[in-house]
Write a structure and sequence with these properties.
4-stranded mixed beta sheet; alpha+beta; 12 helices; globular; binds flavin-adenine dinucleotide; 424 residues
Amino acid sequence: MDFSLSPQEEAFRKELFAWLDKNTVELRKRRAALGPGMLGLGGLPATTKMGHRGEGDAGDAQGEADPMRDFTRWWHQQLHDAGYVGIAWPREYGGRGATVMEQVIFNEEMTKRRLPTGVGGLGVGCAGPTIIVHGNEEQKKRFLPRILSGEDVWCQAFSEPGAGSDLAGCQTRAVEDGDCYVVNGQKVWTTGGMGADWAILLAKTDFDPKTPVHRTFSYFLMDMHSPGVTVRPLREITGFAAFGETFLDNVRIPKDLMLGKKNGGWYISMNTLEFERSNSASSIQYLSTIESLVELAQKMRRNGQPLSKDPVTRQRIAQFYIEANVGKYMGMHALTRQLRGQTPGPESSVGSLLTMELGQRIEDFAMNLQGSYSQLTGGKYAISNGAWQRSFLSSRGRTIMTGTSEIKRNVIAQRTLGLPRYTE
Ligand SMILES: Cc1cc2nc3c(=O)[nH]c(=O)nc-3n(C[C@H](O)[C@H](O)[C@H](O)COP(=O)(O)OP(=O)(O)OC[C@H]3O[C@@H](n4cnc5c(N)ncnc54)[C@H](O)[C@@H]3O)c2cc1C
């Protein structure tokens, strides 16, 4: 890899910096108005994980005001109008058609400045790329520009109460009826489901017990506003309700909203998971968390000395920095494959696993540095208004979402290293 910038990339960097200098003044004003309880480390909204509208609360489902959703939508609009959403997407579908380096320059600068990304993480990161690879021209033209503009917010309806790691255990059924499929079943852990407009959905379309299980699923683009779709929020340990249970009761999906071929959905869903894992493969975000960790170590004292002078603390932080940089280059590797027209591949599990586990270790260490202050989530003695506590709690899900660490290790063992599948 050559990381020196070409004249075009240098020009992009300058243009981006100038735009951010000008536009973040209003952003900071609006962000401050959200109040400390809504903010995470570095002042980012605490639930921007996937950037979905509707992350706020059950109230969203009833169309109640949600200041954080409005803030995120407003910021998305600014980014989109300036051409900074879908930087690496083809121009014909509303993207910028830029290089991998331009995407990386953007990602790094947003993180360095601790700026939020906008709505539609799932749409831009997973649904859109899957539609680019597997959709027909009509589907691409219909959905891709609206994903980039933030008009349509997407969620992923794959997991079920009895099918998470073992996704092939999905029981949701889609039965042909005229020009539609009629879908019945239940999904769970649907991130952003309460406010989403569309879902990528995996459902069974072959019910013959003799058919190999991986050939029994189809992949649908489902309108979340269809009659029969109900999403109930699930409240997390953080106090936020970022995901929900999705009930599908005789939902009619027109046949032209099937992605790819009937009973070919399993392989498409594996591509979606690769995109999802490649998005989480880059640890650029942790470079700014490590900066916050350095500030924390300078602030906290033990035996009259700041912890930043403690040799063990310094070694640990330096090690995190090294690992975050390794994760950064793994993320660039995955992005390079995508820009060459390839899917991220099973290797995306390597970067994702490294990054997700690193994030948890950083959060654990930050709690240790705070000693007994780590128990305070608010009040005048709480460190950073409880932002470390909120991010520590939400980090627990990182080694479960996008596939658990055990499943990613299985993928690496079988699909990257060619080791045999484990059998008793
Ligand atoms: C924050 C968050 C957001 C999420 N968002 C979404 C979403 O938007 N859409 C969606 O569809 N899903 C989503 N999920 C669900 C997620 O994909 C599942 O939770 C995950 O795949 C694990 O499935 P499970 O919860 O059923 O656990 P299980 O599959 O029941 O696993 C339980 C335990 O058994 C282990 N295990 C299972 N099988 C194996 C095996 N073969 N080898 C070794 N160990 C094994 C697992 O590692 C785990 O420790 C989200 C989850 C989280 C935490």
